[in-house]
Structure formats: C-alpha cells, structure tokens
Specification:
- With 414 residues, the chain is an alpha+beta fold.
- The protein folds into four domains: 152 residues, 2-Layer Sandwich (Beta Polymerase, domain 2), CATH 3.30.460.10; 87 residues, Orthogonal Bundle (cca-adding enzyme, domain 2); 118 residues; 49 residues, no CATH class.
- It contains 22 helices and nine strands.
- The strands form two sheets. The chain has a seven-stranded mixed β-sheet with strand order 3-4-5-2-1-8-9. A two-stranded antiparallel ribbon has the order 6-7.
- β3 and β4 form a beta hairpin.
- α13 runs antiparallel to α14, α14 packs across α18 and α21 crosses α22.
- The longest helix has 16 residues.
- It is elongated and about 90 Å long.
- The termini are far apart.
Amino acid sequence: MRPQAHALIAARPGLARLLDVLDRDGEEARIVGGAVRDWLVGRDVGWPARGDVDIATTAVPDEVTRRAQAAGFRPIPTGIEHGTVTVIAEGQPYEVTTLRDDVATDGRRAQVAFGRDWRADAARRDFTMNALYLTRGGELIDFTGGEADARAGRVRFIGDADQRIAEDYLRILRLFRFHAGYGHGPVEREALAAAIRGRDGLARLSRERVRAELMKLLVAARAGETLREMDAAGLLEPVLGATGDVTAFARLAAIEAALGLAPDAVRRLGALAVREEADAAALAERLRLSRAEASRLAALAGPAPTPALCEKGQKAFLYRMGRERFTDRALIAFARSGAAMDDEGWRALLAIALDWPMPAFPLKAADFLARGLAPGPALGTAMKRAEDAWIEAGFPQDPADLDALLEAVLADDR
C-alpha cells in the first residue's frame, strides 16, 4: 500500500474494517471520488475530514445492508433508488453506492441500473478528477485520465461535455465550483463552451440544488476569478437573477483573507448581489435560503459604518447593530469603497468590529423601580431613554456616572 493511501484509510475509524467487509467473497469495494481526489492533490484527508469518504461496490444495496449489519455497523437506506446505503462505522458515516449505469436522464435526475463494470461506472460520472478509485491495497484505478487532470488543476468532463451536462444541468454549476476549488488557469475551453450552450437548462433545476452548489462555490479558493469567468460567459446572471458585482466580491474575499477571517458564503453573496432589501428578498426566494440566511442577507442592505464616523459613533453603531451585522456591513462597505487594502481608517473600524469588548447595559428594571417608577409602559420607555443616554455618553460604567444618568432620565419624567 502507498504510504499516503494507508494514511487516508488508517486515519478514519472503521474504514479499513468496512472495506474488509465489502471487498471479499465475490464482491469488490473501492474508495471513490472526492477523498481520492483530495488525497491525490495533497489535501487534508484526516479525520474528522474535510469531506466524506464515498465507497463504490459491486454489491447491491441489500447485500451491503446484510454485510454491514453482520459486522455490527448501522446501515441507513439514504438513497436506495440510486443504490446508496449510508453505513455508520465506528461513528463515521460512509456512503456506499452500487456500481451503476444511468439508463435515462432528464436533466435533473437519473434512472439507474445496477452493474458490475467499473469502467462503465466511471464513464457515467461528471469530471475525470471525480472518477478515481482507490483500492484498500493502495492501488489507484483511473479509467478517464483523472490523475493527470487533478494534478494539472484541469476540471474536464468525462466523454462528451454536452451529453454530461444534458444528463444533469447542475453540472454547469459544478464545473465552476470545482474549478474554483481545484482548477488552475482559465476554465477548460471545451467544458466552458458546453456550459454556455446548455445554460437554458439551469432554469429547470430545483432552487435547493442551485443554492447548495452556489454556496460552496462562493467560499472556494478561486471564487473571485471563477465568478468573473462565469459572468463573462453570461452564466452568472441566470443563477442570481440579477447582475453580480464581481469586483466587490473579489475585494471582499481578499479583505477576509488579509484579516484572517474564514470565507463566509452569506456575506459574500451579499457583496455580490445585495444593494437593497428587495435584492435580498429576491435572492432568498430564488435560492430557497433558510430563514437564518434570508434574515442575515436582508440585514446587509442597511446603512453601513464607515471610517468617517468618530470612534464613539462607530462603537454606538456597533452596539445598536450587533457584532455580526456591523462586521458584515463594514466588510462589504470596505470592499465597495475602492480603498487600499491597508487603509488605516477601514482597518481601525474593523478592529473595533472584531475586537471591542461590547458592554452590556448596566441598569436594570430594579434600579428604576427602586427610584419610585411604577411597572408598566412608562418603565420600558424610561429604560430605553436611559440606554440611549448611556450610549451617547460613551458607555460609562462608574456607579456615580450611572446614578447621575438615571437621575437625569427620571427627572425628565417628573
């Protein structure tokens, strides 16, 4: 076994045992797809893993289930119609899928027939780099030239690109997503041309599937360059339903990297396509975003803090808005400003957003009741006025200052 292949298998509890259970007694099983691709290009394949480990097998789902149960694993029929059983082995899930042919497709889903031909199973997959198999003995099986393509950073369709896309139009988005994550240079010419020819098929896809691919694309390493290619090819607007601001997106990605921030899909989507709340609402509907995603996206459309505010004003803005919304709006405003990446004003603003220990309002209802204010609407009004005065005063914490502030607020009500 190759040392690296051994590490891939040994690092995952249960994987070696599962392969041993499936790869014997007349059946074969091999690791396939993303884990093999990532191992080949030197990405982390440890456990917990960046992604899942998928297994292809000649065994049909019933046989996979029988063997898994006999070994003490827990099989779950997550996609029986497509030959997939998820097996939980020592706490880690593995998707085990029977070799198959896609006998009929409609651009969204496929009807499948189980088989035993490894070459045919590879031929029905999307990209060459995703059609690589690794045996438990460490042998790499490559029917399509995927090893060379993966090492070269070339995302290439298997066989006829137009046919692969017509089988599932989501492969247009997958082309750009994988290019953004693994590609070098421009998108492969034949693949790009086929994507352009097939773009009308994007309208046939479910919103949930489009959302899943787009959100992965937005956080990929070369997302900015790839979105620029999508835009130039006329493929970005059909996905977003609007013109995308790729320049702002690319600058935001660079700012996140410079500040050591993790790529954030919702924030990046906002930089790309949200100027007003109506934009956010349209995107949320178009992509079937979750409630949390839609709410956060809508919050990106409001007024943004800028270095033009004094530090006191910036902190007041941050306190009222909350750290996440303030940071999102500040980062996007910085990206759209055109200011230099090392601009001191924007850097200072973002330092406050990220590092300032935002205080809690120190006065409580009991403080007002102790001064004779009765429970009821007047209490809530007084507390709100006191909090506003506290913010305006620069968030004082000294008991004497707080006492004076409270007295001033109550005096206005007398």
